[in-house]
Amino acid sequence: MAVVGSYFPGRGTLIEQTFLKGQAHGEAAGLAEGVLRILEHRGIAVRSETRRRISECTYRDTLRHWLDRAFTVSQADELLDELFAVEEPDC
């Protein structure tokens, strides 16, 4: 039987922390790609600056919010107009 979970030989080690950071980065990149693909599929043009901000955002809650809104916005910049995450200014 396989055990599901993050059980590194030295839990809390730098190796595990690095792994988890990489995992979070990968999840954020996937969410950003999803936002951009939905906009593309809907035929909504995305300016290069908007594309860069979405792609470089690392806050998963912000990206999830944008992913949900990507289905209903009429312009890509509307996603950034309502930047709800005041504590996450880097997006």
Distance between the termini: 42 Å
- Computed over alpha carbons, the radius of gyration is 16 Å
Quaternary structure type: single chain
Tally of alpha and pi helices = 4
Which range does the strand content fall in? under 5%
Helical content, roughly? 55-70%
User: Could you describe the largest sheet, including whether it forms a barrel?
Assistant: none
- Which structural class do the helices and strands define? mainly alpha
Order of helices and strands: HHHH
Mean pLDDT, nearest integer?
82
Shape: elongated
Detail the poorly predicted runs. Answer: none
Number of strands: 0
SSE topology:
Elements: H1 14-41, H2 48-56, H3 60-69, H4 77-81
Organism: Streptomyces niphimycinicus
Protein name: Transposase
Question: Would you mind describing this structure in some detail?
Answer:
The chain is mainly α. It is about 55% helix and about 0% strand. The chain has four helices and no strands. It has helices at about 15-40, 50-55, 60-70, 75-80. Helix 1 (about 15-40) runs antiparallel to helix 2 and helix 1 packs parallel to helix 3. This is Transposase.
Structure characteristics:
91 residues; Transposase; single chain; mainly alpha
Brief overview, please?
This is Transposase. It comes from Streptomyces niphimycinicus. The chain is an all-alpha fold and 91 residues long.
